[in-house]
């Protein structure tokens, strides 16, 4: 089945720090032309920290949705970082813990209809306390919850952040 679209023209409408916005004209399999708005976004990493019988989350305000979310620690990959390096850095920056073990639990495309960002997911265990190295522009509340409580919230569809839902789904289906 060859349903690929061929890019005819591509124009950068905006170039930013973490994303670029492109407008592509594509040729469809039937020969017609169509416009595609594409977000080129740096890849990210999300980590579910499991500490004994508890899990750690961050509660933070998300400007794009104008609301707070309870989510797993996460961040964007920088330079030549591997996903594991980014996950370790983000845990230290956001919750002041360093994982001794990072268990890969896949990757997701959060919005593949318009964005090329990949998010790599991990479960972190064997956590060691480190100095908190918070970013200047992040205001985060660390929330520690018993795994039983997290499972009940997950079953009630309380979590709405995609990377968090995916990481919890992996954890609960493999534990």
TrEMBL record:
GO terms for cellular component: cytosol. It holds the Pfam family NUDIX. The keyword Transcription does not apply. InterPro entries: NUDIX_hydrolase-like_dom_sf, NUDIX_hydrolase_dom. Keywords: Hydrolase. The keyword Hydrolase applies. GO terms for biological process: nucleoside phosphate metabolic process; ribose phosphate metabolic process. GO terms for molecular function: hydrolase activity. This is Hydrolase, NUDIX family. It comes from Pseudoramibacter alactolyticus ATCC 23263.
